[in-house]
Amino acid sequence: MRLHRLEITAFGPFGATQKVDFDALSAAGLFLLHGPTGAGKTSVLDAVCFALYGSVPGVRQNPGTSLRSDHAPAGTYTEVLLELTVGDRRLEITRRPAQQRPKKRGGGFTTEKAQTWLREYDPTTGEWAGLSRSHQEIGEEITQLVGMSREQFCQVVLLPQGDFAAFLRADAEKRARLLGRLFDTRRFAAVEERLAELRKAAREQVEDGDARLLALAHRMTQAAGGLAAARTPVEGRPGDPGLAEAVLTWAAVARTEAREALDIAGVRLAAAEEGQAAARAALDAENDLAARQARHADALRRRERLTEQAPERERHQESLDRSLRADRVAPALGLRRDADREHAAAHTARERARAQLPPDLAEAGAEQLSALEHRLREELGGLDAARRAERRAAAVTEERAVLAREARADEDALRDAADWLAGWEPRRAALAERVEAARDAAARAEHLAGRLEPARRRLAAARRRDALAEGTRAAEARLAEARERRNSAHESWLDVKSRRLEGIAAELAVTLAPGDPCQVCGSTAHPAPARTTADHVDRATEDAAYASYTRAEETRTAADRDLAVTREAWSAAREEVQAGPGSPEPTVAELADEADGLARLHAEAHALAGQTHSAREALARAEREHEERVAAQREAERRVAARTSRREALEREQAALDEELARGRGAFATVAEHATLLERRIALLVDAAGTVRAAELAAQRLKEADDRLADAAYRAGFATPAEAAGALLDEGERRALQQRVDAWQAEAAAVADRLAEPGTAEAAALPPADPAGAGAAHTAAERALREADSALAAARERATELAGLSRQAAAEVRRLGPLREEYDRVARLAALTAGTSAENERRMRLESYVLAARLEQVAAAASARLQRMSSGRYTLVHSDARSGGKRSGLGLHVVDAWTGSERDTATLSGGETFFASLALALGLADVVTDEAGGVRLDTLFIDEGFGSLDEQTLDEVLDVLDSLRERDRSVGIVSHVGDLRRRIPAQLEVVKARQGSAVRLRTGGDALSG
Questions:
Q1: Sign of torsion over alpha carbons 948, 951, 953, 954
Q2: Kind and range of the H or E element at 970?
Q3: DSSP, residue by residue, 478-493
Q4: Do residues 358 and 681 make contact, with C-beta atoms less than 8 angstroms apart?
Q5: pLDDT tens digit sequence for 529-558
């Protein structure tokens, strides 16, 4: 991998765009990156890392920190462009982090997302071709091409000497952590963890299987309760050897004892069944004898009760016989009762009708009353014509009254119509003029509305213009004040920072302790540490000054942004106020008068135009009313003419009806009154005649019913009808008597049948039966049978359960065989890789073993350069010896050729530690490059540490670095050492200023002279 070109814009301390030509720097093979503290040397390396991986090393990428330069203008994007060659591909990467930018519309800022571009140079066409703009795709492509993660790149390409000096003095665990990150040995640690997990899982499976086997043994012990084997259960814990064989042996013994117990229980059950059958037969015989003896005794008792009930049964039978004879008289009795009831009702109706007749007709017969009725009906028929005339006369009178009312109404309508039509023409002309005026007002209101809205907008803009003018003057004053405060704070911060840098040596000397290496030179001897002066400034004071400057800068930026927004708004408002280009700019008062006048005229026209619809509706209603009134006038005139003819005809008809009514009324006030009286008399006569005839007929029927009743009673054998009526029974009484007689007869037959049974009489002659004794003997036999059956079932269930559990135990033992073998194999491998096995003599973990091999390669590669730097004195060797009780594998020693001794790298002096760590870093770069797939690293950077070397050692170190050009590499040294500026011609200087830092490329004599 070779770097060609780097462009940095608004990044870190660089406010403007800075360009670094690595091709020019690499031409010399060795170049120097230098500049004052805080100028931005590290930011150049950060920009390279950010371009490749989208982030910077260490704490500089923590949340809350920003990569954007505080010196950059508001509209400039923070951007890094890196052109490099990886393999045979020339690429260009451009990255922009997420950053704030001014809004395109309105005031304030908005966050713009991070962006990335990847292009590739095509040598055939000489043009750049875009490959991708996806962060993920570009990140994967760069990582695959470079072959290293960000952490590996920062360790291998940006060589931090302080980290490798700490590596030389670190113990095995710290070295393992660093090497593990560089060589990515997580897969070997994962193998260790996976084997430990497999061992744990296999152990759990074996113990689970043993637990299940012990559970089966416990269940078999419970099932074998009562056997000799149950008194000696299996003892053991999950994981014990020989557990499976012990369980299977005990199960075989228990099964044998269970089968023997089952055979014995079967013999006992057969004997109990025979005893129970004999007891059952004896119990059935005694129960049968007792039942027959009880039946005979019960029949004798029932026969005695029947003899006692015989007189009552004869009385019931006689009552039934009399009731059957009385049933033949019942129809005649019913007819007699009906005739008597009808005769009484007819007599009562006759007496009531006679009470309403005149006294002279109270004793009249039916024929006399009927004759009088006929005469009155003839008189009523003669009044029909008179009644019709009376009803017609009333209708004629009503119709004449209606005609009079209609005549008066028509006269009023004609007078009202005449009065209204007389003023129609003037009214119509006034309404038409009102409609026309409303139309003119609507057109005038629309024209005024088109002028009113622009006038109001200009008035509002004029008011905003005047207010923004005041705001602009206030914003200018705030910006001037903010600029002054920002400049004062910036100068104060730079002054504090300069004073702190002047005394930085004294500040670093405070942290020195005897035996600890110096952070600047690396030496463990501190003969004359610097002392603080009276005007020394500490870091807290510098941070406070910087914070004050940052707040002042933010205030100035906000004030500048507010002024720009206010000026833009003022210009827009001023343009809106002017009527056109070159026209005078009116005041607010002039625009207000113009808008008020237009609003007043528009309101008046709008109010009048709003009456257009009502005016049209009023005209339409008046025209409809005119048509209705003319039509009503004509209709009233037609009705008046028709009504005159009808009134004359009704008057003639009324005269004829009056003559006929005079004849029909007679001595009564009306014909209807005369007819009503006749109808009432006719109704009374008809009712009286009917009741007289009904009474005569009922008396005749009563006499005939008495004769038929006397004859029926005699034929049925009763002396009188009253005797026959007394012998009658209702259906319920007769049914009850019949049921009693039938029950007595059925009981007598059943008793005779019971006494005639052959077995019953024989049983009565035998001694009394004893079913209780036979039952007790049978109960004892049943109990013995149940106990024998339960014992057999328990023995059979025990044998079955033991057989089933034995099969489960055998299956579990077969299943556990492969699991136990697998556990033994995995446990051996896990202990070997974890360094806890006796077979692992050096107690080295698998990851440590792999890292030891890598460290051995790094030591070999570093020794080649260390021998040149130390004039053949020192060589780095790897050691896998154990230190105390710790594990071995990552020891690093230095061999001193002058003394022939081998000692730990922690004993090196400051200068020796520097070139040893440098050699180690270069060797590590070679090994990691090979590990990453052989990708060449043609550009390296080495950070600080050269101040601890004497002049001769410095020459030797530079010779080694210069020899890297043999492999076509370029090495950049980041250092403050002034002697290096005279020794290295190619230089990249970082200069800091108030407007932000800048880079200067110097080569050849120009660099040496500077």
A1: positive
A2: strand 970-974
A3: HHHHHHHHHHHHHHHH
A4: no
A5: 766 666 777 878 888 988 998 899 899 889
244: left (phi over 0), alpha (psi -120 to 50) or beta: alpha
Confidence class for position 861, pLDDT limits 50, 70, 90: confident
List pLDDT tens digits, range 879-936. 776 655 455 567 778 888 888 888 877 777 766 777 677 777 777 777 766 665 545 6
DSSP 594-626: HHHHHHHHHHHHHHHHTTHHHHHHHHHHHHHHH
User: 0.70 cut: is pTM over it?
Assistant: no
Q: What is the maximum alpha-carbon separation in the chain?
A: 185
Q: Residue 142 pLDDT more than 80?
A: yes
Q: Which pLDDT score, from 0 to 100, does residue 380 have? A: 60
**Long-range CB contact pairs, 333-341, < 8 A, 24+:** 333/709, 333/721, 333/724, 333/725, 333/728, 335/705, 335/708, 335/709, 336/702, 336/705, 336/706, 336/708, 336/709, 336/721, 338/705, 339/698, 339/701, 339/702, 339/704, 339/705, 340/702, 340/705
Residue with tokens 């080295």: 844
Secondary structure of 803-842 as H, E, C letters: HHHHHHHHHHHHHHHHHHHHHHHHHHHHHHHHCCCCCCCC
The Cα 768–Cα 755 span in angstroms is 18
Token output for 102: 């001014």
Q: Rounded distance, CA 232 to CA 657, Å? A: 142
What are 901's strand-pairing partners? 896
Residue written as tokens 């698998």? 846
- Angle of helix 384-422 relative to helix 424-502, nearest 10 degrees? 60
Rounded CA Rg of the chain: 69
Backbone angles phi, psi at 989, to 5 degrees: -100, 135
- 680, burial (CB in 10 Å: exposed 0-12, middle 13-18, buried 19+): exposed
942, HSE (Cβ side, Cα atoms, 13 Å): 26
- Give the separation between CA 935 and CA 958, rounded to whole angstroms: 25
First to last CA, the chain: 31
478 close to 559: Cβ distance less than 8 angstroms? yes
Q: What are phi and psi of 345, to 5 degrees?
A: -65, -40
Q: Which two tokens stand for residue 1003?
A: 């080569």
Q: What share of the chain is helix, strand, coil (3-state, %, to 5)?
A: 70, 10, 20
**Binning pLDDT at 50, 70 and 90, where does residue 718 land?**
confident
Strands 127-132 and 158-160, how do they pair?
unpaired
Bridge partners (DSSP) listed for residue 891: 879
CA triple 59-63-67, angle to 5 deg: 70
